Amino acid sequence: MNKLPYIFSLIVLLSTMLTATPSQAQERRGWSPQAKGAVIGGGSGAILGAVINKRNRAVGGVVGGVVGAGAGYAIGKHTDNKRKEAARIAAANRAAAAREAEYRRALARREAVAAKTQAAAVPANSLAASNAMVSGSAQPAISNAAYLPNDSYGDASKPYSNSEYRHKSW
Asked: What is the pTM of this model?
């Protein structure tokens, strides 16, 4: 009869395990660089402190662990800041490339619309059309005499870097 409570508890344990619904596991996140640095620094500092302080190894280990944990945390924080800065710079470069690509697409659309408008704006019986037909080549039409497209838009080393158009100075 001494085995009866053990058998009963085994039955209860197995029935609980088999009938229990599995709960959702939370997504595990890794350690931060600061925590990794503090743990590594604290462990190595405690070992070195105990080895160096031969009179009282416990005090040496505690002091070494605290100093090592502080130094490890500082190194981990520096590493994390460098990683975040690199990610910020990469995101800024991607955004600048996207802005540049959008600007180029808009410029190409404007040029296509201007070409269609210029071709449609010249009537067949006008003097310019007859001169173009006589010479055999089309003459370039001036579409917007006050502004020029700015090919270096967004480049801070160029003049008019913050404007899509360059203003004529004459």
From this structure: 0.47
